[in-house]
Automatic annotation (TrEMBL):
PANTHER family, per database record: SUCCINATE-SEMIALDEHYDE DEHYDROGENASE, MITOCHONDRIAL
Family matches, as Pfam families: Aldedh (PF00171)
UniProtKB keywords: Oxidoreductase
Name of this chain's protein: NAD-dependent succinate-semialdehyde dehydrogenase
Cited SUPFAM superfamilies: ALDH-like
Active site: 251
Family to which the UniProt record says this protein belongs: Belongs to the aldehyde dehydrogenase family.
UniProt source species: Sphingobacterium daejeonense
Length: 477
C-alpha cells in the first residue's frame, strides 16, 4: 500500500532528516515492520531545541491572524489526506480503520478550535485606585514547548498540544511514542505544506525516551513541557522540570469507574459501556476500568453486556468490519492476562472471553462477581476487559468510585435528575460522563485530578496552558 505521507525520517527546521542508527516500527496486528525511523540521540535533541528557540523570535512576532490562517491551512490539508492519515495510524497502532478515521476528525477538531481560539487571547484593563496610573494585562506565548505524546492516540494527542502552542505563538519540539511515530511525521509534512515556517514545528524520533525526555525536561531553552502518558513517567518529568521551574501539563493514568444505578436505562447503559470500554481495545486513559452495578439490576446488565460483547468482531484493523484490534505489544497483552487470572483466582467468573486469541489479540471479556481485592480494582488494565462489581447504595458506589489515587474520568447512568447532580458533584474526577460513555470534545476541558495530572487540554483553558499573563503599569498619568 503506497502512502505519500508514510515518511521514514525525522523532521527538523522544515527538512526531513535521516541517521545511520534507526529503529523499526511494528504493526501489532501482523507483527511485521511498518518501516524504520531515525533513532536520534540526546545530542541531536539539543539541536532540535536550539532550532525551535531560534525560530521562536520570528514566530512570536507573527500576527495572530497569520498564525490562524496557517492552522486553517493545516486543518484543510488534514481533511484532504484523511484516508492516508487513518491508514498510517492503523498500521502502526493496530486500531480498526473506522476508529482511525474517527480519530483524524477528532484530532483535526483541535486544529479547527485553536485556529479560532488563538484570536481570543484577550488582555484586560484594570481600574486605577489612585487615578494616576494605567494598568493593563496582555497574553503572550510562553516560549519553546516540548510535547511528549503516547501511542494510543497517535494524532489526537499531538494536535491538542501543538494546536494551542502554535496558536499562542510558541514553537514546538515533539517527541512522539516510538511505537507510533509515523502519524507525527505525516502531520509534519502537512504542516510544512500549510506554510508553517521552518523551525516552528519539529519532530524528533528516538527509542531513547528516557534520555530525550530528561533533556526536554531540564533544558533551559524549553519553557513548557506537555506530557501524556503514565503517572510514573509524569512524576519523573515533573521532578526533572523543577530544576528549571518549567511550566508543565500532565495527562496521566486513570482508573475510570462506570456506575449503573437501579433506575438506569439498562440498554443505554450497555451501549455506553461498550463505547466507553472497547475503543482502541480498551487502551485509552479514559477507558472504563471498574464497573459498579447496583444489586437490583446486576443480573440484567451483566446478561445484556455479555451478549453485546460476544458480538464484537476482533481482527486486523484494515479488514472491513473489525471493531477491536490487538494490544499494542507483548507487555500490554501480558498485563491483561495477569489481571484476568488474578480475578479468576480470587473468585471472579468469566461470562465471555477470558483468553488470548493469537499474536497480540485478546478476546473481549466480561468478568462477573468480581472480588473487591482484585488487582483490577486498583490498577488500570488497559485492555478489552469488563470487570463487574456489585454495590448496594449510592453512598457505597461513590466511595468505591473515589477509592483510587487517580481521577481522570468517571461515568454513571441514572434516570433520576437529582441523583445525577448529586453524584456528578461528588465524583473525584476531572471529567464526568452522565448517561454517556463518550466525553471527549475539543471545546471541553480534558484533564484529571489527583495523580491523573495537572492542567487542561482543549477548550479555552487549553490555550491558557501555553500563555503567560504580562502586567503593564503606566505611571505618571
Amino acid at each position: 500500500m503506497k502512502n505519500s505521507l508514510l515518511i521514514e525520517k525525522a523532521y527538523l527546521s522544515g527538512a526531513f532528516i535521516s541517521s545511520k542508527k534507526t529503529f523499526e516500527v511494528i504493526n501489532p496486528s501482523t507483527l511485521k515492520p511498518v518501516g524504520s525511523l531515525p533513532d536520534l540521540t540526546v545530542k541531536d535533541c539539543q539541536k532540535f531545541i536550539d532550532t525551535a528557540h531560534k525560530s521562536w523570535e520570528a514566530w512570536k512576532s507573527t500576527p495572530v491572524g497569520e498564525r490562524s490562517k496557517m492552522l486553517r491551512n493545516l486543518y484543510n490539508l488534514i481533511n484532504e489526506h484523511k484516508q492516508e492519515l487513518a491508514e498510517i495510524m492503523t498500521l502502526e497502532s493496530g486500531k480498526p480503520l473506522q476508529e482511525s478515521l474517527t480519530e483524524v476528525d477528532y484530532a483535526n477538531s483541535f486544529i479547527d478550535w485553536f485556529a479560532e481560539e488563538g484570536k481570543r487571547a484577550y488582555g484586560e484593563t484594570i481600574p486605577s485606585l489612585a487615578g494616576n496610573t494605567r494598568m493593563q494585562t496582555i497574553k503572550q506565548g510562553v516560549g519553546v514547548v516540548a510535547a511528549i505524546t503516547p501511542w494510543n492516540f497517535p494524532l489526537a494527542m499531538i494536535t491538542r498540544k501543538v494546536g494551542p502552542a502554535l496558536a499562542a505563538g510558541c514553537t514546538v519540539v515533539l517527541k512522539p511514542a516510538s511505537q507510533t511515530p509515523f502519524s507525527a511525521i505525516a502531520l509534519a509534512k502537512l504542516a510544512d505544506k500549510a506554510g508553517i515556517p521552518k523551525g516552528v514545528f519539529n519532530v524528533i524520533t528516538s527509542k531513547d525516551s528516557k534520555g530525550i525526555g530528561k533533556e526536554l525536561a531540564t533544558n533551559e531553552k524549553i519553557r513548557k513541557i506537555s506530557f501524556t502518558g503514565s503517572t510514573s513517567v509524569g512524576r519523573t518529568l515533573m521532578e526533572q522540570a523543577a530544576s528549571t521551574i518549567k511550566r508543565i501539563s500532565l495527562e496521566l493514568g486513570g482508573n475510570a469507574p462506570f456506575i449503573v444505578f437501579n433506575n438506569a436505562d439498562i440498554d443505554k447503559a450497555v451501549k455506553g459501556a461498550v463505547s466507553g470500554k472497547f475503543r482502541n481495545t480498551g487502551q485509552t486513559c479514559v477507558s472504563i476500568n471498574r464497573f459498579y452495578v447496583q444489586e437490583e439490576v446486576y443480573k440484567e446488565f451483566s446478561t445484556k453486556l455479555t451478549e453485546a460483547v460476544k458480538a464484537i468482531a476482533v481482527g486486523d484493523g484494515l479488514k472491513k468490519g473489525t471493531q477491536v484490534g490487538p494490544l499494542i505489544n507483548s507487555e500490554g497483552l501480558k498485563k491483561v492476562e495477569e489481571h484476568v487470572q488474578d480475578a479468576i483466582d480470587k473468585g471472579a467468573k468469566v461470562a465471555t472471553g477470558g483468553k488470548p486469541i493469537k499474536g497480540l489479540f485478546y478476546e473481549p471479556t466480561v468478568l462477573i462477581d468480581m472480588p473487591k481485592d482484585s488487582v483490577i480494582s486498583t490498577e488500570e488494565t488497559f485492555g478489552p476487559i469488563c470487570a463487574l462489581f456489585k454495590f448496594k447504595t449510592e453512598d457505597e458506589a461513590i466511595k468505591l468510585a473515589n477509592d483510587t489515587p487517580f481521577g481522570l474520568a468517571s461515568y454513571f447512568f441514572s434516570e433520576n435528575v437529582n441523583q445525577c447532580f448529586r453524584v456528578s458533584e461528588q465524583l473525584e474526577a476531572g471529567m464526568v460522563g452522565v448517561n454517556t460513555g463518550l466525553i471527549s470534545n475539543a471545546s471541553a476541558p480534558f484533564g484529571g485530578v489527583k495523580q491523573s495530572g495537572l492542567g487542561r487540554e482543549g477548550s479555552k483553558y487549553g490555550l491558557d496552558e501555553y500563555i503567560e499573563v504580562k502586567y503593564i503599569c503606566f505611571g505618571g498619568i
